[in-house]
Write a structure and sequence with these properties.
The protein has 7 helices and 7 strands; from the N terminus they run H-H-H-E-H-E-H-E-H-E-E-H-E-E. It is mainly alpha-helical and about 240 residues long.
Length: about 240
């Protein structure tokens, strides 16, 4: 258990989070600890916030609380945060750490609870326009549901805003000859709504395999460089990311 790991000096990442929250909410020492941390860390910036788990946002809110003495409420969402102390940066489309306890609903709950200013950083400077258009198409088609199963928006919750892209002309090879690398993944939710477990995984494995075969047999699919030179798409150009 946690006590045994603490005695052995082998605490795990989750143990550190739990113990940190325990210190911050301690009925005797918590207020003093919160006040000390608040004085030391005047501004908190949480990057990649879409992969934050509920305990991490709990810690950030209590440290950035407007009044450390009263920041011991059981629910972090009920703790007022001083304006200008807490900055959250994240993209719900990139929420991929569910296996480690990250919860996209922490992101959505924090947006509602903090009542702060929201800024949309909607321009992608490192991907081609074709890739960005494909991602936007996928999310529009999903109608509030991420088809790959990373997260699902609850009824009434906002859909991620679409991205724009800076033209990548003169910045290397461009994928040509296909409508979009993710076009075949934009499947209707009715097809997978009732699927679970092995059926769900088998459906997407077959769907991806069929799409890859079509691309490799399509003479139009390939890469074109700035000089107009064309090279057919090869198996080595493709990568498949899977959960371990």
């Amino acid at each position: 258990g946690v006590d045994a790991r603490r005695r052995a000096g082998t605490l795990e990442f989750h143990d550190l989070l739990v113990l940190a929250r325990k210190v911050l909410t301690d009925p005797d020492q918590g207020a003093e600890v919160r006040a000390s941390l608040r004085d030391r860390y005047r501004r908190l910036l949480v990057d990649e916030f879409q992969d934050t788990d509920p305990i991490q946002i709990d810690l950030a809110v209590r440290i950035a609380a407007a009044d450390p003495a009263s920041a011991d409420d059981p629910r972090w969402a009920d703790v007022p945060v001083e304006p200008g102390r807490l900055f959250l940066i994240g993209d719900p489309k990139q929420s991929i750490y569910g296996f480690r306890g990250a919860d996209i609903h922490s992101y959505l709950s924090a947006r509602r609870a903090t009542h702060g200013r929201h800024y949309q950083l909607g321009t992608n400077y490192r991907s081609t326009r074709q890739l960005v258009d494909a991602v936007n198409q996928l999310f529009r088609h999903a109608e509030g549901h991420y088809a790959a199963g990373a997260f699902r928006f609850r009824k009434g919750e906002e859909n991620p805003l679409p991205f724009d892209a800076v033209d990548a002309a003169g910045r290397g090879q461009q994928l040509v000859g296909v409508d979009g690398p993710f076009q075949a993944l934009a499947v209707g939710m009715a097809e997978i709504e009732d699927m679970r477990g092995d059926d769900y995984r088998e459906f997407f494995a077959q769907h991806c395999a069929e799409h890859i075969v079509r691309l490799l047999h399509d003479p139009r699919a390939g890469f074109e460089d700035d000089a107009g030179r064309f090279a057919r798409l090869m198996p080595a150009d493709l990568a498949i990311l899977v959960r371990d």
